[in-house]
Amino acid sequence: MPDLPPLLTIVLEETGQLDRESAMYRRLIAARLRLESHFAVLHVAESLTTAVIARLCRKIDSKYVIFMRTSHLLSANYVATLFDYLKSRTVYLAEPVIYTGPIPKNVAGTKLDDAYHYARDTDVFGSAFNTRRLSDALEALGDVDRTAIYTSYRMYWSIAKVRPLTTGFSMASDTKAAIGLRVAAEANRLMPLMPVHSQEIRLQVLRYVALFLRGIRGQKTTSITLNHLRDLISGFELMELLAMVEPLQPFEAAWIRWLDDPADGKQFFKQLSNKDAYLVFRHKPDAGANEVPLYELLFNDEILRIGKCYLARNLRSGHARPGSYNFYNRPIRPSSTILFFDRPHQADDNAEHLYEYFTAKHPEFTHVYFAINPKSPDWARLEAKGFNLISIFTKEFYEKFLISDLVVSSQIYSIRYRGKSFANSRFVYLQHGIQLNDMSDWVLSKYFDVFVTTGRIEADYMSKLAPVETLNSGLPRYESLARDIDGQQHLLFMPTWRFNLHQSSTEHFVQSDYFHAIDTLLSDPRLMRFLEDTDRIMHVKLHPNVEKRAGQFRFSERIVKSGLSYREAIRAAEFVVTDYSSAALDAAFVGTPIAYYHWDAADFFKDQPYESRLDYSDDGLGPVFSEHSELVDHIVREDFAVRDPKYIRRRERFFEGVDPARINEKIVERMLSL
Fold first, then answer.
1. Which end of the chain, N or C, is surrounded by fewer C-beta atoms within 10 Å?
2. What's 72's DSSP letter?
3. Measured at the alpha carbon of residue 572, what is the angle toward residues 571 and 575, in degrees to the nearest 5?
4. What is the pLDDT of residues 279-321, one digit of tens each?
5. In this predicted model, what pLDDT tens digit does every residue of 178-227 receive, in sequence order?
6. Residues 577/631, Cβ–Cβ less than 8 Å
7. Rounded CA gap, 91 and 86, in Å?
8. What distance in Å separates the CA atoms of residue 510 and residue 512, rounded to the nearest whole number?
9. Is the separation of the CB atoms in 617 and 598 below 8 Å?
10. What are residue 409's DSSP bridge partners?
């Protein structure tokens, strides 16, 4: 009797080394052992483009096919649940509950509302397609990008509604929401223009359009035409659903409004104290006298230019409408409610330092609050210091936000409550670090009245994006930052993270170039001998994403995993080494010598959601080493202890405009003037 084809084939896309120890791969193999010949796993060592998927569908002989990556997450019962469902019926599509972050314990409790359908990923991953039906559909959908196949397939076969099975699948990354998607160069349409009344599908089309627009800001050119985008917006009546885009993608929401009505070239973006900020969309090369140019994008053969301008508030339609409350009406005064916060579970950042300064210098302000999670280890410390604490993201927090005249934070969150958001209220963004990389697409997607920068280089960069909002004062934590030259000093190594290792198994992680570069340095015999001979300690501050794998590194008596806070570690450092972390600039600010170890300079930014804008060789505040031996030479010869005039000049230029004694004062002056 001939062997029957399997019921299901799972296609694993992995262009690099297959992580056979990942949690998801082990679950697949466990399921394969139980289901034996009814279930096949196919590893594909190339990117799953539309053409590749079409080719695979013609070859795969199983009734159903699922696509995934080893970096994804799946519930323990994922394969069994899908298999049990598929073996007893014939369906065109079967899918679990799809997530972009962690899979909750109670998958069945996930609320399948409009927010779910809009936020879920629309890529091919995780859902079971009827292989023959997918192959047939791709004959008509061959010119769409792989990321649009799922939604297009549903339109093609008129699958208006899908009830997910009670198991979960996660793409394990929300990076796409931050950087958008980049469609293949050969794609000449985003979606087929097929009539559909399903709100599920329309919401997914809306998100896809928004993600495409976000991605094209970085990609700069596409074969997709502006007219095709307008056809999608009108054909699927996306303007009715636009409120779903606004909270997290306000730039794209304004763009979609313009596409719907191109005659209105100026789209309102953000209310400010004295004026309003608008995005300007135009085709002509000549910009207005006061317009800030942001983008020049090519859509097939049509150039679109996007800029920014600031106009008087009375020019905004409906600004004085009786039913519209103006959160800028009240000036900031001693009776004002002001909210400060850093991360929900961690303080000791710029908001904490500015809060402490503000409440000490302005005791007349009696309704100033610092928000943090009560479970944070910082709660008790701040309480002992007399901070007026409230629990962040609770009912009380949102009520305080509603009546506040100002919010000040080192983090940007999309906070909305009863019609109030940062789009129509005062917000001072203190930043967590310094913009070393090109984060312009991210910056332009955020609402703020003041953006705090540190030094000439960053301020010049930000002034090209937000000239009215930029304040070159320096970070609040810098004012109280000083080198501790009296206590026990140490060397400090602070490597940052690599996005491509986010879901790697421990076995895969220790085989990575990232682990090898760090561990080789930590176990270098010459470095160890130098530390022993000079009675020094090297502290290593691992990135939070690496903490769970700290046990894999070869720490020793002289090279230790630091338990100090970043602030304590930097204050007591006589020399700091990093790869790309901006935290090293805290050390440079107080005159501590730093160096960069770029062991993967050729590949680092390929896997990051941003590009570098700093030439470390020409503008870095310390020497750059690409070889492990060169860095060790620099340390054991104690070259770091020699003050190099070149780096002193660079440091002075980098931090130009920042008065270390007036950082908080300058920020408070600007705050109170809003």
1. N
2. S
3. 95
4. 999 998 877 778 999 999 999 999 999 999 999 887 777 666 6
5. 889 999 888 889 999 998 999 999 999 999 999 999 999 999 999 999 99
6. yes
7. 7
8. 6
9. no
10. 341, 429
